[in-house]
Amino acid sequence: MLCLSGLSVALALALVPGPAEALKEGECEVCVTFLGRFYQSLKDNDVRFNSADIEKAIIKSCKDVKGKENRFCYYIGATSDAATKIINEVSKPLSYHVPVEKICEKLKKKDSQICELKYDKQLDLTTVDLKKLKVKDLKKILEEWGESCKGCAEKSDFIRKITELMPKYAPAAAKARTEL
User: Fold this and answer.
1) Residue 39 has what DSSP assignment?
2) Three-class secondary structure of residue 4 per DSSP
3) Going from the N-terminus, what domains does the chain have, and what CATH number goes with each?
4) Chain segment 25-52, per-residue pLDDT in tens
5) Contact present, 112 and 73 (Cβ < 8 Å)
6) Cα separation of 40 and 60, whole Å?
7) How many CB atoms lie within 10 A of CB 28?
8) Percent of the chain clearing pLDDT 90 (strictly above)
9) Which pTM does this prediction carry?
């Protein structure tokens, strides 16, 4: 009998959820940033805080994002090509004004990939030596600007295109480069 009660106590302790793991600094960077900005836009635009309206607003916001934020939208099911749909795991808590960090913690439990997303480090175009960058990085700069380099075969072609477009997309960097 004593053995049975000890076993039931051990089983009960195993089933009791432990303290929820809070997000560490820098974890879920894309999730926290995107949802924080989204939540602020909801408050600024006086959107009604119900699940359906928030869901529509998320889908609308996700149509305009690129890069890691688009990947985040894909993971929560807010893009048209998404395989799963856990968008209600975002819209419902937001309708109750749950902090975005807590929402991201719950999303991490559902899909750990969400918290593995991190923003790419931004290059300082004023000081970076374009000749020392890889072609992949040069292509990424053009992609961020929404430009492409048709007919570019060599690294020098990409560098020429970037320096040509720099006054349009990064005027401060272009000005600093001419002063060097």
Assistant:
1) H
2) helix
3) 29-116 (1.10.225.10), 135-179 (no CATH)
4) 778 899 999 999 999 999 999 888 999 9
5) no
6) 15
7) 24
8) 62
9) 0.69
Tokens 């889908």 sit on residue: 59
C-alpha R_g of the chain? 23
Q: What is the DSSP letter of 111?
A: -
Residue type, 79: T
Conformational region of residue 20, where left means phi above 0, alpha means psi within -120 to 50, and beta covers everything else: beta
Taking the CA atoms of 55, 59, 64 and 68 in sequence, report the sign of the dihedral they define: positive
Using CA atoms, how far apart are residues 132 and 141, in angstroms rounded to an integer? 14
> Could you give the CA distance from residue 86 to residue 105 in angstroms, rounded to a whole number?
14
Contact 35, 57 (CB under 8 A): no
Cα 12 from Cα 6, distance rounded (Å): 10
State the CB neighbour count (10 A cutoff) for residue 131.
Answer: 9
Place of tokens 């959107």: 47
Residue 104 and residue 110 in contact, taking contact as beta carbons nearer than 8 Å: no
